[in-house]
Amino acid sequence: MRDIEPDLLRAFLAVAETGSFTAAADVIGRSQSAVSQKVLRLEEALGKRVFERTSRALRLTRDGERVLVAGKRLLCHYDAFMQALSAPADNRLLRLGISENLVLTQLPQVLARFAEQYPDLRIELTTSSSQLLLAEHDAGRLDVVIAKARKADGKDRGRVIWREPLAWLASAAHRQDPRRPARLVMMREPCFYRDVMTDTLDRAGRKWTTACTASNLLGLQAAVRGGLGVTVLGRSFAQDGMHILPFSRHWPRLPDTELSLIGGGKELEPIVEPLVAMLTEAFEQNAGLMIAADAAAA
After folding, report:
1. What are the pLDDT digits (tens) for 42-71?
2. Topology of domain 92-161+259-297, per CATH?
3. 36, 108, 119, 28: which is closest to 75 by C-alpha?
């Protein structure tokens, strides 16, 4: 196995995250053919195929999934190394907005690692709903936002850095009565999960009623565990005392949720990309724990 050039890994990660060579070319500012050549060179250097290509789809191979996790970690350390050598310590400010749903899960450990890597960076952290964070960014009060960004005019906003299946969550003691309207636990508006939950039931013709409205994720999870009703969240937000309801006529299939990076630009890229790598690594570890828990419960 030969040494791997960072540019080859960056091209591969861009394709893996966007799902296509065309979109990856826009992300890294190269032509589609150049991105394709870099991925081919990466496969040659590794002696492994990282993508299964068909006329209709592009998906990671088993080796590709391993390269994705290890590659993000390697580039995170590489970028930190280059940043440390390129300029003396400074006192820059990063105005960072992160969806409040991450505060109780992945964010603390990620911020601890990030602070160790950038001890001289000042962070002005704002946590709120995705909609409010996007409004703050549009007003110029945030440099970078990591949140759920809905499509505007049919176009994606920002760069998707993580996708996760949504699930119907109920208490472990939940008993379904299909004759009665679904009792829902939801957060106050504006809320992405609230909209997905009610829109999905409306399209399926399932009647529903609001059993509890919570002001934050902690309160919502407590209400669900207490048996007040059912809610919709990413699978990683399931806790002890919660049960993931299987999709059915009464609990219709849900879409995936997407977490996007909005803003940043070239000037902040050397510090934003390591943060994204740390965050997605934490997501992957948490997803692995969820899979292991599902297998143990089966």
Report:
1. 988 888 899 988 777 788 898 888 888 888
2. D-Maltodextrin-Binding Protein; domain 2 (3.40.190)
3. 28
